[in-house]
Write a structure and sequence with these properties.
Layout: E1 12-16, H1 33-44, E2 49-51, H2 80-85, H3 91-95, H4 108-125, H5 132-140, H6 145-157, H7 168-171, H8 175-184, H9 186-212, E3 216-221, H10 230-234, E4 249-253, E5 263-268, H11 272-277, H12 281-293, E6 296-299, E7 307-312, E8 322-325, H13 329-339, E9 343-346, H14 354-363, E10 367-370, E11 393-396, H15 405-409, H16 414-424, H17 429-442, E12 447-451, H18 452-455, H19 485-497
Parallel strand pairs: 1-2, 1-12, 2-3, 3-6, 6-9, 10-11, 11-12
Antiparallel strand pairs: 4-5, 4-7, 7-8
Helix pairs in contact: 6-9, 12-13, 16-17
Length: 514
């Protein structure tokens, strides 16, 4: 009898909604009551998966894929009303700030200036340092917590400049500078530890609620880390940096149909030889931490583990670069060891070479299919469900990087739309969105996941991200009560028709919602 693949997903369906997109009176989604209500909606719609975007602290550009840390959580997601219930904040202190006036979009500038002022008040009143829970948190996260908190304190000290612009002694982490600044910035370092303690505390409660009600959390992690991050500052030996700590080569992808000059992401590349000499320990710690945060971990740009594109740092576009061989199975073996019972999804979109296919077969990682890519080249298109060879995979209408379904099909060729109509037996774009959801649910793929924007049939004004475009991204939010009973009933019906639901149970209430 064949050994069961640990990464074989349970047949089911789910929704993609970033935490930032949850409704909230304070400008951005949080781990508050609306998160629990969203879980209740998933349960009502017989959904088994909630996919979120990376939860890390965002930097310039607001992208969750360019974070100050591969381990830390975004303090923006700490729910302020829960801090009021703890006696750490007064309601009028929160209302004293301007959180933005549009419930459908995040105003990151206003959030940046308001959030930390409020969180500092909560920190000053908290007695967390006297608790065993906090001591345990610091011990369990010692690999990254001190470096991250020190790094953020230094960023504040240096007026939020990137670490490459700091004074040389602390940029190079010279012992005397480390000791001097750690004493000088002691209270600031403690503040950043506090934000992580509260982030993890609130997230684990929400995740536990989801799990108790049969919903698994799919988390997303970028393959690379940001140059302006605690990881690169503290572990520079593991990256391709020169003697001045500047990147030698950076990550991206070459020109393709989506971008004439390619995508220059700017992330420093890993020094895989240096990583291997340390038994990939940094990656072990990263994946072990991710497995605590999520039930299933989607590794973005997975193909870079096998073959990655190296762009000389001085190049302003991605037109000049070379492909190199990645660590492959050496790294996935470490990943498998680190994540324990958590599962892995490989984002295998892009130019997939045979080595990627072979590695995915060896690991058993499920890949992805995108239905909005399916109708532009006739019946042989690999994204069409009748061509799916692998059952253990996730089918999406589109991801956070794609247009919404309504936005996408409004701008396609007459031939492509005609084929989509014929394939799904509809005659207008509005019905096409529903038909794509039904087609995905009917497919053999173990998981079918759709953006909430596509369930609500929103146009590209609700698009989450346009790759290679700076500004205007990561802003969309779900307006409260926009998901109605009719949406939930439709999803429930499809889930049950196509074998993606279990016996229905009422959600278990938590203390916060009683």
């Amino acid at each position: 009898m064949a050994k069961k693949n640990k990464n074989e997903l349970e047949r089911g369906a789910g929704l993609l909604l970033p935490i930032s997109s949850l409704p909230s009176p304070y400008g951005i989604g949080t781990f508050g009551d609306e998160g629990y209500r969203f879980v209740d909606m998933l349960v009502k719609a017989r959904q088994k998966y909630w996919q979120v975007l990376p939860l890390g602290p965002t930097s310039y550009g607001d992208s969750p894929y360019q974070s100050f840390s591969a381990f830390a959580g975004n303090p923006y997601y700490i729910d302020l009303d829960y801090l009021v219930k703890e006696g750490l904040l007064m309601q009028d202190e929160i209302y004293a700030h301007d959180w933005g006036d549009n419930p459908a979009y995040v105003d990151y500038e206003k959030i940046f200036y308001a959030r930390f002022d409020v969180l500092r008040k909560a920190y000053q009143r908290s007695n967390h340092k006297r608790t065993k829970k906090y001591t345990k948190f610091c011990e369990e996260n010692s690999f990254w917590l001190e470096d991250y908190s020190f790094y953020m304190a230094l960023k504040v000290h240096y007026d939020n400049q990137e670490w490459l612009k700091w004074d040389e002694d602390i940029r190079f982490r010279k012992p005397e500078a480390m000791e001097r600044y750690s004493k000088k910035l002691k209270k600031e370092i403690e503040f950043w530890k506090f934000t992580q303690f509260k982030f993890y505390e609130q997230w684990f409660k929400l995740k536990e609620y989801a799990n108790k009600n049969g919903v698994k959390i799919i988390g997303d992690i970028p393959l690379y880390v940001a140059l302006d991050s605690a990881d690169v500052w503290a572990h520079g030996r593991l990256f391709e940096l020169d003697e001045r700590k500047n990147p030698i080569n950076i990550a991206g992808v070459p020109p393709d149909k989506f971008s004439e000059t390619g995508q220059r992401w700017g992330n420093p590349l890993y020094d895989w030889d240096a990583m291997e000499k340390e038994d990939f320990n940094w990656w072990y710690e990263r994946m072990h931490s991710s497995a605590e945060l999520y039930d299933i971990i989607r590794i973005d740009h997975f193909i870079g583990i096998v073959r990655y594109f190296a762009i000389p740092a001085e190049c302003e576009t991605a037109e000049k670069g070379v492909y190199r061989k990645g660590p492959g199975k050496k790294l996935t073996d470490v990943i498998d060891r680190a994540v324990g019972d958590a599962q892995i999804i490989a984002e295998d979109l892009g130019v997939v070479v045979p080595e990627v296919i072979n590695l995915m077969k060896k690991t058993g990682y499920p890949g992805m299919k995108i239905l909005s890519f399916a109708f532009n080249s006739g019946p042989s298109n690999e994204y069409l469900p009748h061509n799916y060879e692998n059952v253990n995979q996730i089918v999406y209408g589109g991801t956070h990087d794609n247009e919404t379904l309504i936005g996408f099909f409004k701008d396609q060729t007459e031939e492509e739309i005609k084929y989509a109509f014929e394939y799904m037996n509809v005659d207008n774009i509005w019905d096409l969105a529903d038909a794509i959801i039904r087609t995905a649910y009917a497919s053999p793929s173990t998981a079918a996941i759709f953006q909430v924007q596509d369930i609500l049939k929103l146009d590209n004004s609700a698009r989450m991200n346009t790759p290679a475009v700076l500004g205007g991204n990561w802003m969309w939010r779900m307006v409260r009560d926009s998901i109605r009973e009719e949406h939930l009933k439709k999803l429930e019906t499809l889930a049950c028709i196509y074998g993606r639901c279990e016996i229905k149970e009422e959600p278990k209430e938590t203390e916060e919602l009683k």
